[in-house]
Amino acid sequence: xxxxxxxxxxxxxxxxxxxxxxxxxxxxxAYTVTKTKTASDLAxxxxxxxxxxxxxxxxxxxxxxxxxxxxxNEQLRESDATYWIKNAFPNAKSNNxxxxxxxxxxxxxxxxxxxxxxxSLFTWVWFRDVTNSADLKFTNILIDYxxxxxxxxxxxYLQPNNKITRAEAAYIIAKIxxx
Length: 179
Fold this sequence. Notes:
Elements: H1 3-9, H2 15-36, H3 49-57, H4 78-88, H5 105-116, H6 136-139, H7 141-144, H8 166-178
Helix pairs in contact: 3-8, 4-5, 4-8
């Protein structure tokens, strides 16, 4: 089905109205598809699957329209993170994002704090590999919401400089929303 063909059938010729109709139609189609079909590659994210499916149903995150894949093990881009945070927290501030920048775990938590104001009340060092005390208000968000990465790494380590995956970011957002 070609969108352009549908718009040629419309009796008016204003680009702005056509664009708004296109956005409206695409949202309805995305909602219908999300309610009936889920991502085909969630088996590889079995530890985070329920949280990802929950966010897909709420339309906070999205899957690729053509391949039906969520790509849970891909590194999270800042543009996706901004989109997800805005959808999850309606009062979140806008962020000037870099489309292709891949985020680390610490950068994602800082972005979450910058856009929503969520920060930790704890000030003691919990993660053994977070040495900068200024970063504790971001990293200890995970402690406040009882979020544990399921990457089979040693207990009490965050690995803040590792790139965060799409599944891990979706998991963090879902855990915060559930509290």
